Amino acid sequence: MKEFKPTDYTLECVATGREFPDEGWTLGDSTCKTPSLVRTKYAVKQIDLKPDSFGLYKFCDWMPVKRMLKGSSAPVTYKSKRLAEYLGLENLYITFNGYNPAIGANMTTCSFKETEAYSVCARADENCDKVLVVASAGNTARAFAKVCSDNNIRLLLSVPEDNVNALWFEEPLNPCVKLIVCEKGGDYFDAIHLSDLALRSPKFYAEGGAKNVARRDGMATTVLSAVTTIGRIPDYYFQAVGSGTGAIAAWEANMRLIEDGRFGSNLMKLMVSQNAPFVPMFDAWRADSREMLPYDEDKARRDVEIIDAKVLSNRKPPYGIRGGLYDALKATNGEVLVATNAQARKAKQLFLELEGIDIYSASGVATASLIKAVADGKVDPKATVMLNITGAGEELFKRGKKLWYLEPSHVFSLNPDADDVVAKVEAMFA
User: Fold this and answer.
1) How confident is the model at residue 1 (pLDDT cuts 50, 70, 90)?
2) pTM score
3) Which of 81, 216, 394, 412 is the most buried (most CB within 10 A)?
């Protein structure tokens, strides 16, 4: 394997255009008065893919990483035959994030959240003495748990108790990974609140979510996989969204690829979808509102209980922030679509029959939205279409295996005492 070198890049504030160095874990521009994301600007303008032995880090020219962690896998893009024929599409490409060794896909957590975790954790200083904190609805937690366990990185996860069944593993984890949960009835937003309380302790530091450039640029590898496989930038990009971070990352990768100059100059039309009845971004986009519309907390929790794709249940996504999903949709003339549980289940079954592998509910939502968009005449049959399958192969991976589940160290109420949370989480890592 070739020697790995840390990536050379600077940061740029989207709202102001100010360029400045990354101080190691910079999540925003402290001089900017407007809520804004920051983006990476890489010294390398034409991406040079590394060998497959680098795993996800084959795309490291455009990842803000200091080192390579072991165990990573890259997304796999292939041209669909049977689903494409079913839909009447001539150039449907599936970017597969999950487990399907038959096509070279080896993400053992079965989710594209691995692309985030391997990027974020490789951005962190190897000698950091603080504990990384990640809030998740499930798949992100599983991915970070695996990466941190395998690479001996201390991690505190915060997850809704209703979602702990998502924390399955092939073998017991390294004890450097700990879990706290908010009690039954809580959702992803409650898990975020709990993690924020833990972060009042100076012994912990926040992963940062969408504000962390490593998270977005890790997710952007899905588009890098697609474009370097196809040889051009697609016309359409389909993905289900909870926070919309993956779609923001796709837009950012698209702009870098235009600057690269070898893959075309078009912006992909972002076709993102939510799982009804939990559709806050669809509602805001339909109203042409940069701000999210009011959403009663109790109704939001009830809607989350109904949807199959629990990972799509972010109540406070990076939607209106400068450089967020609203701007991405405006820039690409994108759309927000909706799929019901019934439509997503039907799409999952269709994908299994035609493409030969099980997919997650979120991927079912994306596939259902593609099916409907084609039926409604929104997609040119000759267009190059990228379908981002963000999670798949769990049934295949689990077959014949005895699984191990991460148990929570503490269960907190939905309105926990901050001092109690800090005391307990500090004791967990004493």
Assistant:
1) very low
2) 0.96
3) 216
